[in-house]
Amino acid sequence: MATPKVKTVRKTAPAARSNPIQKTDGKPKAAPAVVKLVTTKAANKERTATSAPKPASMTGPLPPIVTLKHLAEWAGYNHGIAKKQAIEMFTGFVADIGRVLKKGSKIRIPNLGVLQVRIRPARPARKGRNPATGEEIRIKASKASKKVAFRGRKGFERSDLICASTASLLSAAGDAG
Fold first, then answer.
1. At what angle do helices 68-79 and 41-51 cross, to 10 degrees?
2. What is the mean pLDDT of residues 147-165?
3. What does the alpha-carbon distance between residue 28 and residue 40 come to, in Å, rounded to a whole number?
4. Where are the domains of the chain?
């Protein structure tokens, strides 16, 4: 019996184009760029599903107060990052937000809103009147203050939050009953 012959095929890189300008330049060529491997969402989900179980805070109803650790845990699970690394990233993110706000800049987060520092100047002491009796009263001086304010995006109303929390409560009640 004769054994079938198998052809081996070798792929070679295409020949580089010659550029007369580079030849006369006399400068050394730059190293080729490193190619990043891009993973698809499906591959990412497979990796996270096999690497770690779903966090407990994601399986049941949402906790009444969602902390930075919860957010980091969820982001770590969804993006295939270790929990410690995700917590470090979120802590650094919050520190960066604080640093930017201290310098007086606004932070605009699409689909969420704007964070900014509102400055209220100091007001001197003054005289006022009691509207009921007409008696003159002395109003104390107030100090200057700075407060971090959040303004939600247009259409991001309290009703959005109420609907989301009601839906989570209803789903939790449905699971319990």
1. 120
2. 70
3. 37
4. 40-103, 106-124+143-159
pLDDT value for 61? 84
Compute the distance between CA of residue 79 and CA of residue 1 in angstroms, rounded to an integer: 55
10 Å CB burial of residue 86 (0-12, 13-18, 19+) is buried
C-alpha 62/C-alpha 165 separation (Å) is 9
- Helices 83-102, 68-79: axis angle to 10 degrees equals 120
Q: What is the dihedral of CA 74, 75, 76, 81, to 10 degrees?
A: 160
Q: Per residue in 54-105, pLDDT tens?
A: 877 777 788 889 899 999 989 888 998 898 999 999 999 999 999 999 998 9
Q: List the 145-152 sheet strands across, edge first.
A: 107-109, 113-120, 145-152
Q: From start to end of 71-177, where are the E strands?
A: 107-109, 113-120, 126-129, 136-139, 145-152
Q: Which residue has the tokens 């989570």?
A: 168
Distance CA 91, CA 50 (A): 27
CA atoms within 13 A on the CB side of 177: 6
pLDDT(175) > 80: no
Calculate what percentage of the chain has a pLDDT beyond 90: 32
